[in-house]
Design brief:
Layout: E1 4-8, H1 12-25, E2 32-34, E3 37-41, E4 47-51, E5 66-70, H2 74-86, E6 90-97, E7 106-111, E8 117-122
Helix pairs in contact: 1-2
């Protein structure tokens, strides 16, 4: 459905230190990086870009906006959450089942160092 998602950062080096272990925990590749930007995902598929805003204004997060990344296992959700907290992120909801979404919805929520809200979710009945 999406080509890519772009999140702003005020510190590309800090963002790289945060996102590289987070994406590695989910098995998501980093196909390239360039001045002021890093990208994760498949070259010909969906991507996440973390960039310094093009208008040079400060990057700010939006209230109510977040994006969710698919995790292949509950252990990957746990690793995503741990990597976020170990690399400057903050907890917005620890790993666990969210049965109000569906019986197998296992997710964790974090904020990156720029306050962007992220989620990892596994829909599998077996973690």
């Amino acid at each position: 459905m999406f080509s890519h998602v772009t999140l702003g950062t005020n510190d590309p080096d800090r963002a790289r230190r945060f996102y590289e272990p987070l994406m590695a925990a989910l098995g998501i590749a980093q196909p390239f990086a360039m001045e002021g930007a890093i990208a994760f995902g498949a070259l010909a598929g969906s991507k996440l870009f973390v960039v310094t805003p093009f208008d040079r204004a400060p990057a700010i997060s939006g209230n109510g906006v977040h994006f969710a990344l698919i995790a292949e296992s509950r252990a990957a959700v746990d690793a995503f959450h741990a990597a976020a907290l170990a690399n400057g992120g903050s907890d917005e909801g620890p790993p666990g089942l969210r049965p109000h979404y569906h019986a197998n919805y296992y997710a964790a929520y974090v904020r990156d160092p720029d306050s962007n809200k992220l989620q990892a979710v596994c829909h599998s009945p077996r973690g």
